[in-house]
């Protein structure tokens, strides 16, 4: 068993080091460990367990929310949200950067995906920010950090995965718990953005006139209603999270095809194909990560690792800081869904041992991973925005450090005051 556990971790780390895709690394490591450590009858269960990992009804919500995000991106919703946000913020130093953050937060309430959010907003906002005098590196940094709030603001794909992997977890409570920390994270991006813009005189060439408020609001209403429909339907019990995803898709096509009329039948086919491709990648990762998790649980690797961490200190705070440090490093390298899939079999026993609230812990993980999404060297959100802005990732570091500091402060507040995350689901009557 010890040799098999070493193979499980060693093969996975080795394959990642040589650039193997995360899904392949997870699957091969799990299969190799099972082949070495278990009998032939158990080895025959590899295929079954790989399939079982994705044969779960709640997972249907993931491809549907991905499709929702793409529909709203292609239908022109983002552009109208930008105009509406400009009408709210008005012409001021740092105004366009604040607009970018607000639009990222609203779009996050449609797609649940940070990289998708970053791509949609960066494509629209970076050219405008450059004309207004913002450096490319600064613009890419702000949008990458703002898009990371999508992992917190419902419907978060990562929180859906967390609810499936943690027994007895109420997804509605998770969604509610992520909302206030998500807004707090957005504020943590806006504050340094305004300070830095004023200090360096960014945005000196912004438009002197603000768009007409009521006209821009009217045009943005169909997009603004999407999060309301999703969260309102969940709160009222009208539909489940999975059904909410299906309703969101139908509403998205209604807006894109009939209201905004930005999408023809060819566009619909393109959106379906692109979302299917993205969903397939995520589902392959989930299925092979399920094999990895099954191998680690069966061989006892996660139990041994959990006991080792628990042996470090009797203090829950010390262990939590250690866990957060590990997750931050992981967030710099991997995407949020993969981190949940890989680490939860290890971290849930630790959380239970210290009697941490699992809803709070799930949101705390999400905040940590959100920071990792715009922290080099990999930083999936920053990769997207830097490519659109045509700047190297290393050029964004001076600005990213400020955003990491303020976002880290927001996370520290949630650690010290768990009710920031828990009061809303409690007020709504959800079990936390």
Output the keywords.
single chain; 432 residues; mainly alpha; 2 domains; 77% helix; 0% strand; globular
What does this structure look like?
The protein has 432 residues and is mainly α. It has 21 helices and no strands. It folds into two domains: 1-44, no CATH class; 57-427, no CATH class. InterPro entries: DctM, TRAP_DctM. It is found in: Cell inner membrane.
Q: What kind of sheet is the major sheet? A: none
Q: Whole-Å distance between the termini?
A: 37 Å
Contiguous helical run count: 21
Oligomer: single chain
Give the total of domains: 2
Domain TRAP C4-dicarboxylate transport system permease DctM subunit: 9-420
Subcellular location: Cell inner membrane
Transmembrane segments: 54-72, 93-112, 141-165, 171-196, 217-238, 244-260, 280-302, 308-330, 337-354, 396-417
Subunit structure: The complex comprises the extracytoplasmic solute receptor protein and the two transmembrane proteins.
